[in-house]
Design a protein that fits this description.
single chain; about 350 residues; alpha/beta; Aspartate Aminotransferase, domain 2; Aspartate Aminotransferase, domain 1; seven-stranded mixed sheet; three-stranded antiparallel sheet
């Protein structure tokens, strides 16, 4: 029985066409800015987001880390949502490596308001308080089940942050999912913020890589910080070539993942897994196992027995992710397998 892997869009595999671009890539030393394929990818990304410059990094975590290093000094404070990936899943890098302090605010479906940011801002008293230096937004929001920030919401919180001498960074690992879901352009988000990271290796299906975008001064500083944390690469065109292919061919197809996620969500709800359908906005689905009398670990184990793979996401919560390589037929087969397993369980 072939497994149906719904754990994450990080499990995507590149197409043959994408892999063939690696063999054809012109290569050079990227630390010396002499890799033409990397330069082309960075220029494409900057143009698409309407920024002056872009920087290829090995991972989204490194992209976020480099952005924090470029925006912050030791002892600065970063305001971000309580379940943000940068706080929850990046091994404490903001404190361990940047020396910054997280200030958490609880959003609704991953989105917080200008009023919440205003309340979180520190008084201008450097003798007692760390300066609020950076506001971070996650779009789409992983632990909120792939929910989106709208451009107008980004605009409102960013204006407040900038009025208080803060910078704004978007962890946009899945920003193209947000763009497809909202019929928006990357520029609709980027014009309000100072920096943004997006992943090539999730929904865009590349083997490796992320991009950091911003103005030229920020990217020049980030290039130094990338080297400092070990991200300087040599013939990195082998990473960039699939990225170019992805930007040209893999963005609009994300709608297929969103459609499959909605189909899967309806089916899971029919099986008794608690799902708030209105929050299924992109390719992530959060389900509650309490209604079927299983813990999250028991549910994952049940799925594994019938070859349907997914992850836990906290107490009585599991997450399913649709992505390139998962078809409508796979969704229907996964639902059939889970239905049979649950019937046997009960």
């Amino acid at each position: 029985m072939k497994p149906i892997d719904l754990r994450s869009d990080t499990f995507t595999l590149p197409s043959r066409e994408m892999l063939e671009t690696i063999m054809e890539a012109d290569l050079g030393d990227d630390v010396e800015r002499e890799d033409p394929t990397v330069n082309r990818l960075q220029d494409m990304a900057a143009k698409r987001f309407g920024t002056e410059a872009a920087l290829l990094v090995p991972s989204g975590t490194m992209g976020n880390l480099v952005a924090m290093l470029s925006h912050c000094k030791r002892g600065d404070e970063i305001i971000l949502e309580a379940d943000a990936h940068m706080y929850y899943y990046e091994v404490g890098g903001m404190s361990a490596l940047v020396g910054a302090i997280p200030h958490l605010i609880k959003g609704k479906n991953g989105v917080f308001t200008p009023e919440q940011v205003q309340t979180a801002l520190r008084p201008g008293d450097p003798l007692h308080y760390p300066p609020s230096r950076l506001l971070e937004i996650e779009n789409t929001h992983n632990r909120a089940g792939g929910c989106c920030w709208r451009p107008s919401q980004v605009k409102d919180v960013s204006r407040l942050a900038h009025d208080n001498d803060m910078r704004v960074h978007i962890d946009g690992a899945r920003i193209f999912n947000a763009c497809i879901a909202l019929d928006a352009s990357p520029k609709d988000f980027m014009r309000h913020v100072d920096s943004l990271t997006f992943c090539l290796s999730k929904g865009l299906s590349c083997p490796i890589g992320s991009i950091l975008v911003g103005n030229e001064e920020f990217i020049d500083k980030s290039r130094i910080n990338r080297k400092m944390v070990g991200g300087g690469m040599r013939q990195a065109g082998v990473i960039a070539a699939p990225g170019i292919y992805a930007l040209e061919n893999m963005v609009t197809r994300l709608k297929e993942d969103h459609d499959n996620a909605k189909r899967l969500a309806v089916g899971l709800a029919d099986l008794g897994l608690g799902i708030e359908i209105t929050t299924v906005q992109t390719n992530l689905i959060l389900a509650d196992t309490a209604g079927i009398g299983l813990t999250e670990e028991e549910m994952v184990g049940l799925g594994r027995k019938v070859g349907v793979l997914f992850f836990t996401m906290g107490h009585n919560k599991v997450r399913f992710v649709t992505h390139y390589g998962i078809t409508k037929q796979d969704v229907d087969e996964a639902l059939a397998r889970l239905e049979t397993a649950l019937e046997k369980k009960h």
